User: Fold this.
Amino acid sequence: MEAAAIPAWRTNLATIAALMTRAKNELIRVPGAAIPGVLAPTIFFLGLNGVFGALTQLQGFETGSYESFIVPVSMLQGAGFTGAAAGVNLARDYEQGWVDRLLVSPAPRWVLLTGNVLAASLRSLVPATFVLAIAFVIGAQWPGLDGLVVCYLMVAATAAVAACWGSMLALRYKSQAAAPLMQAGMMALVLFTPAYAPIELLQPWLEKVAEINPMTQVLEAARQGFVGGVTWADTWPGLVALAGLLAVLGALALREMRRTNA
Amino acid sequence: MSDLATTARVVRALGARSIRQTFRRPQLISPIVVFPTLLLAVQTGGASAGVELPGFPPVQSFLQFMLAGAMMQSMMLAGNSGGIAFAVDIEMGFTDRLFAAPIPRFAIVLGRLAGTAALGLFAAVWFFAIGLIFGAEIEGGVPGALLATALVTASALAVGGIGAAIALRSGSASVVQGLFPLVLVVLFLSSAFFPQELMIEPAKTIAEYNPLSFIVEGVREPIISGIDATQTLEAVAAILGVVVLGLVLSARALRHRLRVG
Assistant:
């Protein structure tokens, strides 16, 4: 008697889960590898707070606490670094032949990409939580449960965007030498926003860039709980921006993955 | 050929190799050029309203103020990149071949440092070019620009000495790469990006004693107001201190490397 075939969706889910477990194992077995991803945003957070903290004396700031203003930036920056690291790891896997073995497996390409992207989303919660804990210790405002949920959602989705971006470059250049491009791209996306000061205090050129940068909506959504109350009007543009970025970069990463021959 | 001439040729050849190596590897050149330029743009565009704060020194623009900080960041990362490349040479056995060659051992370290100093020079020229293109004025004129460039170049050599010492001691590129966050800490805890008087405690107090603050002020002064003998001498003293530290650490690490192989 022939055994019943396992539905494709279950196989796909199992593959995604296996890829996420592999990423988790990497984190557990080589915890040192996660340190730069945690340290860099933390140092940026503490450094920026110490250096530019006096900016809150300027008219136009919604809060007198610069640590509250800057902590969502560092959390998103951590997500960007973590997502880009997923791209670097994919390039390393390609160089070592692991990707070739994945590509000859019967798993669809989108499943392989999804596993990598979701793993990055989960991993991004580590630096975000670390930075947030430090921020609370030095006096950042409690954003409320709704503010916290929205902020973490933005962080996880930003890491997914960064992982798509990193995966696309990893599959295009097939070398870890593309790492600076992965990191610089995400750094620019996160920082060319009202990261350091409210939009009306930016120089005109940066104000224009920030207005068209979709990450501005994401940052404003992540920041709202820390500098005031959470509203749907400040949340939905961030969700739309992330959905758009994920759709575009996800499609481009998938295209590169389909072009990659085992 | 005299010993000195031979050593000079070795240093020149290794220095040229180290520069080529940096420009060929995106991982080495991007921390020196891409990231500091990106941060300069973001900080200048994002925090320029800071010049309106009471206590901010008189400057033509925030970009003018930030140029020295960008040069310092680039110079520090050049030292770190030089250390990483040196450690890669050790890992790949290239340094062992140099140790076996009939050349003075210190020339091997000096060659690497010459390359790092040249990258410091490049960083200074790069950021002066960016500053001038985007309208920053150099108040100290050509002599001021030359002085600032010389200080950045010497600082790169000094910081490169510490990077080389760590590379020699550890023999591991990942260990030297792990110093990257420390470079950021030293930068943020100095007056590289904002006047020390306007920083928040404890960064403000630490910045007051951070040798990098003395160097950055020595580089900044010719840009924002003109050459000042006191600040120049303080910067030179701070650089000399780091050079001595780097040389002592490098000499000890070199002995260790020769002993352990």
Summary: The mean pLDDT of chain B is 86.
